[in-house]
């Protein structure tokens, strides 16, 4: 497999041929050990360009879960179709399968563990958050389900366009193999690789020499998370208030209409003005629905911040392990030296007990030294590989982080622009309605 | 929608006026209502001109007061002024302002007085300019005198004594300002009224010094006895008057029933809209700064974020203006007409009562054929009284309807204009932001999905 340098560009992938998958099959169940960063593929070779992926439907299902309890859940239809580079007028057939949210979660967990140096795209929220009064917090609510469908599709597209992740076999199977996928994932044994310490977000590890960039990045991801949450909360409140302003105007319509019944000259003006007030009041629904999509775009990056932090965390832990290993090696070397020279420079329990209960025999000491020397050698090899591992991790992680940064800047700028476009559209609608209303009023 | 006290939240412009039957030029509309003023200035001696302009420029705070031209567009309200006077384009000759609220603290009470300035060219006034101070009680007195003298004329509404429900304290600046504007309106509506404007008590109210007014007030029946009269009158009018009421007045009664209901609803709606807009404004105030905060941790995005923050802030200010417009125009006018509908019901009742007097005398005559002559003279007088009352009410009703239509038209048009200004300002803000962002990007969003 060609190991092309990962290109940190946010540009859209171009169309190219399929890359060689044989290498993957040689690996154990497509599990690429985290110690060897996966080679990235050029944007043009990403899966997203070879395959159309959509999450086209959502369906309510009932079934029995692992504990044989009846439950209701939503299943999502994933449709895929190979993109022919030269269309001969015939499209490839559409393949489809159903997946539920928990399977998406499983996929993502697998990806996070398998590619700890990658900023793995986030899933849409599990439960509705940042709701304002009109939105439902119910997971079964059709609007929520719809927005989640879009979010899941977005997730798949993000993974499929990621230079490294798109090559993953488990991911490919998720899209194409209905039965037995769960078993396949579990067979990779990725759960064993999962570092439980990564979950303990609040635990601090005293790392002496972290890469400064990662420390800064972690700080940034915290700030990003905090500011986007705050923004989303206030936006929801603003939406609520805006809704109120528009909807109250609807009352004008009714009262004007009733009033117009007793007026001769004013009647027509009142009646038609009332109609425009109804239009005004109704217009807010579409406006706010559009804004929800904007909120979802921000939410994606809110969750991305967590993924970013996970990578920083991984680095921290690796560095911590490295420092611990180095520390351990140093102390073993010291022990060895002491045993060899007979000097006790450092306090050790063994040393004390041997003083108290008698010296050991030279043979015993030799044996100990030998063991230590073996351990030291092992330790040095391990340290070397850990060092290498650490450096490779830093290098590949940083490459993905650069890619992510560009993607983030591009996406968020687009989102902000789309927000402005939405505001402009709202203003134009307002101008139209009130111009009409003004004309009606002036004829009263 | 809960009923709420009048509690406009934003600071009201001093001297700002709503459209309506007003002689005062509106602060926001430099030229429109100045037609009659200009002509009046020409009617006055030229050396008075400066005085006039000074008074008005103080309130309107306009620098270009000197640059008027007689051919300025005339507002509908001033047109109505002209329309009311049947002898051709007769113009206003009585100008009244109410301003400068002052607190007076005595051992017994604290009260506010307002300065009432009158400028006139009328012969029956000894001077052409008067300045007096009046308190709310004095206005109440004037109103009751007018009602007494003209029971079937529609006397303009006075602001209420004291708002219990609202969040406005009795002597808060807002409350005082709202009341001042309403009192100003009250006096000007009287001045515009073809009959009331010549009322003697009105003249005394405008011109008498404080002690003169007090002594004048003490003459005539006391308030309590007058109240007693009204109660008895209302009670007697319930019987009989309704069945002999001319169809026209029944129509008016029915109309007022519905109108009153609708205007009260509109008043509630308008207050609710104001409240919602204020809540929206409060949330928006927090919304913009978050983007600025965010921009501090970004590099590439910093400019876009700051741009959004500034747009939101500007829209926030525009919202504030929109709110102010509402509280300066729509809310006071709707409230005035809520009060008017009560007044009209009262006028109709009084007419019924006058008719009731006649009817009961006629009924009594039917039972006593002997003292016919005595009765017939009395009845003749009462018949005249009824006819006069009916005619007065009819004419005033027509006039009131015209004014109401005009007021509603201009007020709601103003509301629409207010909203238009708001949206146009926001539109300009966002469009200029968009322009700054899309210098090197496509304006159209990509039709493809995001990666």
Automatic annotation (TrEMBL), chain A:
PANTHER family per the UniProt record, alphabetical: SORTING NEXIN-4
Molecular function, one GO term: phosphatidylinositol-3-phosphate binding
Q: Which CDD domains match?
A: BAR_SNX4 (cd07622), PX_SNX4 (cd06864)
Cited Pfam families? PX
Matching entries from InterPro entries are given as: AH/BAR_dom_sf (IPR027267), PX_dom (IPR001683), PX_dom_sf (IPR036871), PX_SNX4 (IPR034902), SNX4 (IPR034783), SNX4_BAR (IPR037430)
Q: Give start-end of the signal peptide.
A: none
Protein name (database record):
Sorting nexin-4 isoform X1
Query: Any idea which UniProt keywords this protein has?
Result: Protein transport, Transport
The PX domain, residue ranges: 54-181
Q: Region entry Disordered: which residue ranges? A: 1-37
Q: Note the superkingdom of the native organism.
A: Eukaryota
Regarding protein family, the annotation reads: Belongs to the sorting nexin family.
* Biased composition range(s): Acidic residues: 14-29
Q: Name one GO cellular component term.
A: SNARE complex
TrEMBL record, chain B:
Q: What are the start and end residues of every segment in region (Disordered)? A: 1-33
Q: Which Pfam family is one of those matched by this entry?
A: PX
Task: Look up the domain of life of the source.
Answer: Eukaryota
Task: Give me any GO biological process, just one.
Answer: reticulophagy
Q: Does the keyword Transport apply?
A: yes
What is one term from the GO cellular component aspect held by the record? phagophore assembly site
One example of the protein's molecular function in GO is: phosphatidylinositol binding
InterPro entries, per this entry?
AH/BAR_dom_sf, BAR_SNX7, PX_dom, PX_dom_sf, PX_SNX7
Q: Does the keyword Nucleotide-binding apply?
A: no
Q: Which residues form the PX domain?
A: 92-213
Per UniProt, the ranges with Low complexity bias are: 24-33
Which keywords does the record carry? Answer: Protein transport, Transport
Q: Which family is annotated?
A: Belongs to the sorting nexin family.
PANTHER family on file: SORTING NEXIN-4 (PTHR45949), SORTING NEXIN-7 (PTHR45949:SF3)
Q: What is this protein called?
A: Sorting nexin-7
Q: Which organism is it from?
A: Lepidothrix coronata
